[in-house]
Amino acid sequence: MKKITAALAVATCLTTANAHADMVFGVYAGVQGWDMGAKGSYGQVNGNSTSSASFAFEDETQNSYYIAIEHPVPLVPNIKVKHNEMATFGDTLLNSTFEFGGEIFNVNSRLGTDIDLTNTDYVFYYEVLDNDLVTLDLGINAKRVKGTLAVADQNDPTINGRESFSGYVPMLYGNVEIGLPFTGLGVFADGSMLSVGGHTLYDYEAGVAYTFVDNVAIDLTVQLGYRSIKLELDDLDDIDTNLDFDGVFLGLEAHF
């Protein structure tokens, strides 16, 4: 009987906290610096065949910026917009002929490449749970990808190819945060994913957070974590990619 009473008390506290949180209008704004490493290959579909090349990419420091608005209006989703820089360069020594952007690059050519896959997330989500212990958000992400892939012969830069593509990618979205009461510490995981046909995309991050300012006017939280992005496209606008990006990030978030 005591266990049942205790369980009911906990459930009542969580429900009350959740109901109170749903009544609050809040704005979250953040910035993250990401030590991004990259690896993989890309190529172009030519008829029934695909010409691709693997590159050694440089590590780059990239930035992400986001803002989220949460409100108490029933049935209307909250919204989060996050802009992600994703640009780097690399090179390779071809061990086979590579055709890209209207140019043919011969075996043993030393190629340099610049890639820019900067993207913006438009996330629409609902708070399934929201209390001091656990926060759970579920929704969809319309990721706007605007990509440019460029390659050039390092011995003769006049031999070069370039392809661009853009579009929205619908993805499932989820976010979970677990707090340690009275410490300001917590852990979190946030991500989007799509796997359909030959396309596989995911974008997730996980880490720890510490709220060092917590008052009625503003909360300030520092974040430390790991982020990973996979971009595997199969014949999207005649482009194939198998690219992975990952690394440690440091962030600061303000909650008004």
Give an account of the 3D structure.
8% of the residues lie in helices and 72% in strands. The protein is built from one helix and 15 strands. The strands form two sheets. Strands 1, 2, 3, 4, 5, 8, 9, 10, 11, 12, 13, 14 and 15 form a 13-stranded antiparallel beta sheet that branches. The protein has a two-stranded antiparallel ribbon with strand order 6-7. It is elongated, with a radius of gyration of 22 Å. The chain starts with a helix and ends with a strand. 24% of the residues are buried.
Percentage of residues in helical conformation: under 10%
Percent strand equals over 45%
Q: Biggest β-sheet, characterized?
A: 13 strands, antiparallel
- Distance between termini? 42 Å
In short:
With 256 residues, this protein is mainly beta. It has one helix at 2-22, and strands spanning 26-46, 49-57, 60-70, 78-84, 87-93, 98-100, 103-105, 110-116, 119-130, 134-153, 160-180, 185-196, 199-214, 219-236, 239-255. The strands form two sheets. Strands 1, 2, 3, 4, 5, 8, 9, 10, 11, 12, 13, 14 and 15 form a 13-stranded antiparallel sheet that branches.
